[in-house]
Amino acid sequence: MPQHSPPQEQPLDEKLLQRWEARGVSRRDFIKFCATLTATLALPASFIPQIAEAIEDKRLPVIWMEFQGCTGDTEALLRANQPTVAEIVLDLLTLEYHETIMAAAGHQAEEAKSQALEKYKGKYLAVVEGSIPTADGGVYCTVGGDSALNIVRKICGNAAATIAVGNCAAFGGLPAAAPNPTGAISVKDAVPQATVLNLPGCPLNADNLTATIVHFLTFNQLPATDGLGRPLFAYGKRIHDNCERRAHFDAGQYAEAFGDAGHRQGYCLYKLGCKGPETFHNCPTIRYNEGVSWPVMAGHGCIGCAEPGFWDTMSPFYRRLPQVPGFPVEATADKIGVGLVAATAVAFGAHAVGSAFRKGDAMESDKVIKED
Amino acid sequence: MGKRIAVDPITRIEGHLRIEAQIEGGKIVDAWSSSTAFRGIETILKGRDPRDAHHFTQRFCGVCTTVHSMASIRCVEDALKIQIPDNARLIRNLVMAIQNVQDHVIHFYHLHALDWVDITSALKADPAATAKLAQSLSDWPKSSATYFKGVQDRIAAFVGTGRLGPFANAYWGHSAYRLPAEANLMAVAHYLEALEWQKDVIRIHAILGSKNPHPQTFLVGGMSIPVDPDSQNAINADKIAFIGKLLKKAKLFVEKVYIPDLLAVASFYKAWAGIGAGVGNFLCYGDFPMDESGRVESFYLPRGVIMGKDLANVMPMDEAKITEYVTHSWYRYGSGDKVGLHPYDGETAHAYNGPKPPYDFLDTDGKYSWVKAPRYLDQPMEVGPLARMVVAFSSGHAEVQATVKMVLDRLGVGPEALFSTLGRTAARGIETLLLAQKSELWLQQLADNMGRGILAVHNGDKWDPATWPKEARGFGYHEAPRGALGHWIRIESGAIGNFQAVVPSTWNAGPRDAAGQRGPYEEALIGTPVAVSDQPLEILRTIHSFDPCLACAVHVLDGRGTEIVQVKAL
């Protein structure tokens, strides 16, 4: 991630460095890793030693459950791609249960889950991927013969904290899209009394998960969140405000069709349906797959995957935002850019306006076919 | 008498799979495959913009990411008669090929390997002998005694920590493990190397698709990633070079590590060339169009059907002959549960009548799975790498024939060995090698187009729904890593009227049909030996040979293979 500042000259405990070396992690990689995490958490470099201390030998027991998901969030974690991050992640956590990777199967697998629940009661971290179906007694997702709803209540109810990874676990996601055939709900709705942090995205960006876990280890609490339970360090800013193509928006330069000259030259994708103006996520800053790219950089608009209900509120994905508050709609994209830069900046600058966008019915009127 | 067992969850796959089996005299005499999760995405799609479908369907699976986008886009393009630009064909071929290559390697090392490799024995290996073994198999540079000693030391350093993690309660020391300690150590080393490798090579998806998993540059009519040598915001010479470097890295690992390891491990498990045959019918839609027309005749991996293991007779594939049954699936059809419906007329009305959770066993006489039972000419069909390789082999595909023969010769077995658990695993390796080699051609052609000023990536003639007919329907094919994938769409007044997907694991994991015929997983398990009925290692071998999915997840926790040996410590 080139945008992160280089490691600072912070003295780290020599014995600590030696212990990591014995585990096959060079001191250079270790220091770099700590610096990267510190930057992702938006902390000053003076926190590096504290971060290093936090991840030393405190492997956090984790029970990772998947319900109505696609395993995309698990996959995403595998792409957390600093040269040695994946290795170090192993040492941050001890994964007591994760169906997709564990060697055991069947009742031996379920036994591992029960053992971890007892042994680490109130101390483990629960991670949930996928939504929880509630219709018809929870029959739409069972594991080991028990319903997702029963399992998530038991495991999240006894966890130190729960992280909902991906839009499905955080907000219901795709299974909850209209008409929500299985009564799918989010983790927080399934276990209201649990401490739940939401890391939406489809899938989530693994760097945000790593940073959250380290924050938890460092400060013994979850990071500060917005009103939707999302950590501010990752979801505090609007994509549109940090977009590398923002200057083209302000200048009124738009790609009008996929593959046209403007599209090839990296003009703003607003007219091709980009939902960056109403989506809060750090994609433009940290990107994906070792900072190689993100959707807007690759010529496709944002689809708003960090927002609740985006499958319904942001689609059709190739229609532009129908309305910027305060301006008469559709035909105004050019004007917004060229003539109304200042006013637009004000409109987009206010956090609350994002909610106004989301609640507006204007998106609905732009749909090809209205949902039931 | 015998014993009824249930393995739930089947781990190291994508999604939720349950196997119930009847064991008599140490062998499986009957088996039932059940999927235990339902999301209703086909229902959710109704009424939406057909151009959006690929975003929704890609989320069928995050491991087989890309594949449902491909099939969805193609079904809309088929319905609207859209011809995509040549650059879009080449970019899609590259995206599909690297998905296959990366996914297959991960399956071999991180999902399937633990069925054959007893990692706990790696600590007993002699590093010098391991080096000798590795050097006898390949000239891959990481093969010194020092290197293997380092891997062994790293593993040993973690043994004392005493926390099991995901390797608790596994089947280490099971009598069915056959590899010598040195082969186990070599496999562990390559397991770790493959973990690093997969993260690197999949950046091709980030360059061409914006991210992985769930790349976002697919479009009805082409791709949204622009091509322009004079722009930093497009595929340019720099990005071609980057992709080329990653493709080379992908190919080298497959040639020098994966294939030699596959042959070495297989040589210790030849008995499994006689186990797990399955239904013996194979269906392949074919893929990787080699010319701009995209016509079926140009596919690098050909389309076709083989029935009853008859390699002398490849039949043309006609998608009209596909039907789906719900006799034993938790759905109901308006015309009754005994009929099969073509996907265009498919229905997804869920009707769960299984046991109320928590439960011990399913009622397998009735409905017992969320997977429908697809049939071709009313026969169950296997799909996947083995289907693709036998169809290509029998179609006279020179490259496939040469590679299949090389593998069979090296193992000293005949073509009949292909129809087995081991054959399925070997076919996956053969295909990986061929696609890793072929990808460089597609990249070169993309660069050539760019050099000649051919920059189009999207055909927008039918982008506007106003240009569409009032009603249209289309079939979208794709050969995903796990097999033949089909999407069927009906477009009505600019919106999705009906959408049905028949995915590879539907074909392979499906339950019985109206005639009581078993699905491919179920059939392949018949006769499989089970040494210890509560340690279903052999069941996992045959089920994993189909790659029910979820390969990639294995690396999450496993970056250094550390916890693997902790099992031994306890």
Brief characterization of the structure:
The complex is a heterodimer of chains A (372) and B (570). By secondary structure, chain A is of the alpha/beta class. Chain A is 39% helix and 9% strand.
Tell me what the structure shows:
The complex is a heterodimer of chains A (372) and B (570). Chain A is of the alpha/beta class and 372 residues long. In chain A, 39% of the residues lie in helices and 9% in strands. Chain A folds into 2 domains: 58-235, 3-Layer(aba) Sandwich (Rossmann fold); 239-365, Cytochrome-c3 Hydrogenase, Chain A, domain 2. Chain A has 20 helices and 9 strands. In chain A, the strands form 3 sheets. A 5-stranded parallel beta sheet of chain A has the order 2-1-3-7-9, sandwiched between helices. In chain A, α2 crosses α3 (48-54), α3 (48-54) crosses α10 (206-219) and α4 (72-78) packs across α10 (206-219). The longest helix of chain A is centred in the first third of the chain and has 14 residues, at 27-40. The radius of gyration of chain A is 22 Å and the shape is globular. Chain B has a single domain (3-118, 232-556), classed as Cytochrome-c3 Hydrogenase, chain B (Orthogonal Bundle), CATH 1.10.645. In chain B, the strands form 6 sheets. Chain B has a 3-stranded antiparallel beta sheet. The radius of gyration of chain B is 23 Å and the shape is globular. The two termini of chain B are 36 Å apart. The model of chain B is unreliable at 550-570 (pLDDT under 50). Chains A and B meet through α4, α5, β2, α6 and β5 of A and α1, α6, α7, α8 and α16 of B.
